[in-house]
Amino acid sequence: EELVPFDSTPYCSTSSYDAASYLFHEVIPALHSLNITVEQLHAESGKGQFEMVLGHTACMHAADNLIYTREVIRAITRKHGLLATFIPKYALDEIGSGAHVHISLWQNGQNVFMGSGGSSRHGMSKVGEEFLAGVLHHLPAILAFTAPIPNSYDRIQPNTWTGAYKCWGKENREAPLRTACPPGIQHGLVSNFEIKSFDGCANPHLGLAAILAAGIDGLRNHLSLPEPVDTNPSSLDAELQRLPKSLSESLEALKEDNAFTDLIGEKLLVAIKGIRKAEIDYYSNHKDAYKQLIYRY
């Protein structure tokens, strides 16, 4: 069986959108029937690649909605003789696919991640800074949850907007953690942060749990946020820590990081570490096995 991309049009191509419109006319109403909000849909840079932005909601519902959305897309495309896949790298010479997540913190209906007025140094509240500092500090171990298979690390490379270095930045799309100031937010303030080191092979419930656990650790220990990186991190290679280049490295980072035991639970961590080790062994012994991922994810 030879699989070829749906099309080869450039980023935001209207012709690509038009060509796939018969699919979207089924996908979007199906998602609306499940009370899932679709905020944006456009052709991405990869061949046959589209990006869909789902509306924000509480973490548990967001993870559920992501699962439902993928099931709807897979079912409708299959009905039309197409295969939809969310794997990080379906072909090693093609652009990858991520599952970028935007996180904000809310209390009593107020966004407490965002700063107020001109008193905030980075546009975040103290709570926001400490939470983000925790996520940044534990990011190498978080990758064992959010980038869970060897193929995930074929995507996380410098100069590909995937975030390959341990840093954060303001609207810096090469940073793995990016604070965002979308339209409608007062200039100088940020409403949320984006984490790019997350892909379609990750269990979204476990991935979000790891991010929350890291952020809570940042709040408990009042961690400080370093200065933002506003240039391409690869130009600071000698100064910045490279994030894990393989699942083996992120698994080692998780083994050395004790912050997750309390919040994730020791039994679940043992299971996760065992599964990651099995994935490493399997793909080490079956070099072409990644090609089957297109059917699994």
Series of H and E elements:
HHEEHEEEHHHEEEHHHHH
Multimerization state? single chain
Structural class estimated from helices and strands: alpha+beta
CATH superfamily of the largest domain: Glutamine synthetase/guanido kinase, catalytic domain
Low-pLDDT regions = none
Please list the strands of the largest sheet in the order they lie side by side.
3-8-7-6
The fraction of residues in strands falls at 5-15%
Number of strands: 8
Number of individual domains: 2
N- and C-termini, Cα separation: 18 Å
CATH architecture of the largest domain: 2-Layer Sandwich
CATH topology of the largest domain: Creatine Kinase, Chain A, domain 2
Organism: Prunus avium
Family: Belongs to the glutamine synthetase family.
GO molecular function, one term: glutamine synthetase activity
Protein name: Type-1 glutamine synthetase 1-like
Write up this protein.
The relative contact order is 0.13. Strands 3-8-7-6 form a four-stranded mixed β-sheet, with no helix packed on it. Strands 1-2 form a two-stranded antiparallel sheet. The protein has a two-stranded antiparallel sheet with strand order 4-5. The longest helix has 21 residues, at 59-79. The chain is built from eleven helices and eight strands. It folds into two domains: 14-80; 101-287, Creatine Kinase, Chain A, domain 2 (2-Layer Sandwich), CATH 3.30.590. The mean pLDDT is 94. By secondary structure, it is of the alpha+beta class. It has helices at residues 14-19, 21-33, 59-79, 126-137, 139-146, 152-155, 204-220, 247-256, 260-264, 266-285, 293-296, and strands spanning 38-43, 50-54, 101-103, 106-107, 110-111, 168-170, 177-180, 192-195. Strand 4 and strand 5 form a beta hairpin. Helix 2 (21-33) crosses helix 3 and helix 8 runs antiparallel to helix 10 (266-285).
